[in-house]
Design a protein that fits this description.
The radius of gyration is 27 Å and the shape is elongated. It is mainly alpha-helical and 249 residues long. The N and C termini lie far apart (113 Å). Helix 2 crosses helix 3, helix 5 packs across helix 6 and helix 6 runs parallel beside helix 8. It comes from Lachnellula subtilissima.
């Protein structure tokens, strides 16, 4: 009956929405390409010297929306992205976005440095470029809220480290500029360098590392030290000349 008041029994069976607690996150439907003509365009804007370049990537809308809640909200909104079905990015690179598109469709990333015939020393410039692309991809994946892509990217970075025992040191400045202090990417590099670099390596590479990373390395080692270890002062006393002579006689 229209306008009827629910009984107390009905009220108990159907509590008010305020008391229902947090709702479960709605999971996007996996792409089935039933609407394969529905496409979205990504425009990557980069500053190269004094001029800007634009690189366009076209992706199936259902693929983009499935892999990113950020993109899903944008393309289904009344904002400019929703109206034009175009998304502009000015904080990444075309080389990183190319890898992202690879992953969107295959959940894999092609990394040249991991090929069997790759010799890093013969292609240092290309290695450095790929190192940057992977780090840029990790940061991009973080911004579009895709943890799976972040983890896949980090796995490739780690494979490069384990195979070649190096990664372009200059890229660490990018990491520290584009991540937060509690970033898992920062923590990965701090532990990798702390555990994998010989003392001589720190002397050689120290001036290339970001200042904040040096602090993080110091904190990491401080946490690893044995608590309560006594200091033997004699290790640090400066030899007195007379004692040195007597000791040598």
């Amino acid at each position: 009956m229209a306008g009827s008041i629910p009984s107390s029994k009905d009220s108990k069976a159907r509590p008010a929405s305020q008391s229902e607690g947090p709702r479960k996150k709605h999971k996007a439907t996996p792409p089935d390409f039933s609407d394969s003509n529905s496409l979205v365009t990504f425009i990557v804007v980069e500053n190269k010297g004094r001029k800007k370049t634009e690189t366009k990537f076209t992706v199936h809308k259902e693929v983009a929306c499935y892999h990113s809640t950020v993109w899903r909200a944008a393309f289904k909104s009344n904002f400019i992205e929703g109206q034009t079905q175009t998304y502009q990015l000015e904080d990444t690179t075309s080389r990183a976005f190319k890898l992202l598109v690879q992953w969107l469709y295959s959940q894999r990333i092609q990394v040249r440095q991991l090929d069997n015939d790759w010799v890093r020393n013969n292609a240092i410039s290309e290695s450095k470029d790929e190192d940057y692309a992977l780090l840029e991809l990790w940061v991009l994946a973080d911004r579009i809220s895709n943890a799976k892509l972040q983890n896949c990217t980090l796995d490739k970075i780690d494979q490069i480290w384990r195979k070649h025992h190096t990664i372009a040191t200059q890229t660490l400045n990018y990491v520290y500029t584009h991540t937060s202090s509690d970033s898992s990417l920062r923590k990965y590099f701090v532990k990798t360098y702390a555990c994998g670099l010989e003392p001589a390596g720190f002397k050689h590479l120290g001036h290339h590392l970001p200042n904040k990373m040096l602090i993080d390395l110091a904190i990491f080692h401080a946490k690893q030290r044995h608590i309560g270890v006594d200091i033997d002062l004699s290790e640090f006393l400066v030899p007195i000349e007379e004692e040195a002579k007597n000791g040598g006689s």
